[in-house]
Amino acid sequence: MVSHNNKNTFPMHLVDLDEAAQIERKVAAGPALIPSSSRHLGEEANETVKASVSTVGVDVEKQILSALKKAPKEANVSHEGRINIVTQVDYVKEALCVKYNEDCEYIGVGYNDGKIRVYNSVTGKELFVLCDSDVDNKRSPVTSIKHKPVSKVYPVTNCFTGTCIKLTVDANGCVKCWSYLFNQCLYTIKEKRQTFGITYHPRVPKFVTYGDDCKVLFYDEETKTRERVLMASDDRNVHDGHMSRVFAACFHPRNNYELITGGWDNVVHFWDLRQPHAVRHVSGVHMCGEGLDINMKGTEILTCAFQTPDPLQIFDYGSGKRISCIEPDIHSCKLYCGRFATKDFIVTGGTDPNLLRVIDMHTITTMANVNNLPGAIYSLDLGPTKRRIEKPKEHSGRPKSDISLVPKVAIVSAKRLYQLEFY
């Protein structure tokens, strides 16, 4: 039996609903998302907006967007190290998640109005808006965007799959797969819970979804049917499943049956798809976003937690023992998301302060960062992999850990999409 909470768990300041329809958030259960510090445009932009709105016969929202593009960038956003902000795209709604498409030509951004907007990754121009009558009627925040991994099993399909939650008393969620070139919803899977995310299997046409009912649902992508439910057993003396909301999942890169999950119950669980319950776990990791990753060798786990101390930890996959706890050398930041960018670097994002950080795993130091962003970094994604150019030893002046090999990174912060490049 799926259990539901009468109080909504999604941050209401990000939701485009009438005040009467808003449901009080259960504050005690976990941290609220931090509202953006910049709610108003500058004087110049305001004047442009006023002039635009007064134009008869022109859509108001498009005029506001035009004014936003003309508005000067905030001077207090700073970056250090060999990093450049190459793209900044503004919109009028809060951005909650981001994902490159298969060939990194496009970027999909999910907003709190339920729509996914697709931008050109080079120019930042908006190309597609993924929306149908179902989205228009529900106005449900997009909580996650993924696409099928590119492989022989998964050819390029030009599709984004997103998860949404309906902010009403029944608090239903759904999974929607979009063919973005044709603005067509290929299928919708409705779930009787708040659905916070989706993760595709890297080798077979399967995926899992997770949400506020403590369960991990395993689907067959071809038939759109649910095959398994991963959950805790009824034995209260055994800790073999989640006891609170689940926000992250990651499949093992070299084992078809294994995955890990994390959430609000301060536990990372290890699952075997042949077993209904978790086979082991590690404790002390409070997750509020997609802050789980496994390196390509399948030997190490990265956890990015919304906590202090120990927000950033690395565990041995085989034993579950902690290898290292990466201490903040600049700011103590609570983390929402993070990834192994290369074998040498980790990229993390969070809030308090609103900071993106690139860490050298060999020296355990921050090699580049972007600080004072307008809001928390809820989501990030990595662009195309860069290939190392072999150089003769006598001409190679760069250290072993070469930050220029870190892929382009896309992040969302408040109402903005940023793209970052390393050199």
Which key phrases capture this entry?
39% strand, Methylamine Dehydrogenase, Chain H, disordered N terminus, mainly beta, 423 residues
What secondary-structure arrangement, pairings included, does this model have?
Elements: H1 43-53, H2 60-70, E1 78-81, E2 83-90, E3 95-100, E4 106-111, E5 116-120, E6 126-130, H3 133-138, E7 142-146, E8 159-165, E9 173-179, E10 184-191, E11 195-200, E12 206-211, E13 216-220, E14 225-230, E15 246-251, E16 258-263, E17 267-272, E18 280-283, E19 292-294, E20 300-304, E21 312-316, E22 322-325, E23 334-340, E24 345-351, E25 356-360, E26 365-371, E27 377-382, E28 409-413, E29 416-422
Antiparallel strand pairs: 1-26, 2-29, 3-4, 4-5, 5-6, 7-8, 8-9, 9-10, 11-12, 12-13, 13-14, 15-16, 16-17, 17-18, 19-20, 20-21, 21-22, 23-24, 24-25, 25-26, 27-28, 28-29
Helix pairs in contact: 1-2
Structure description:
This protein has helices spanning 43-53, 60-70, 133-138; strands spanning 78-81, 83-90, 95-100, 106-111, 116-120, 126-130, 142-146, 159-165, 173-179, 184-191, 195-200, 206-211, 216-220, 225-230, 246-251, 258-263, 267-272, 280-283, 292-294, 300-304, 312-316, 322-325, 334-340, 345-351, 356-360, 365-371, 377-382, 409-413, 416-422. α1 (43-53) packs antiparallel against α2. With 423 residues, it is mainly β. The longest helix is centred in the first third of the chain and has 11 residues, at 43-53. β9 and β10 form a beta hairpin. It contains 3 helices and 29 strands. The strands form 7 sheets. A 5-stranded antiparallel β-sheet has the order 1-26-25-24-23, with no helix packed on it. A 4-stranded antiparallel β-sheet has the order 2-29-28-27. It is globular. It has a single domain (82-386, 413-422), classed as Methylamine Dehydrogenase, Chain H (7 Propeller). WD repeats lie at residues 239-281. Keywords: Repeat, WD repeat.
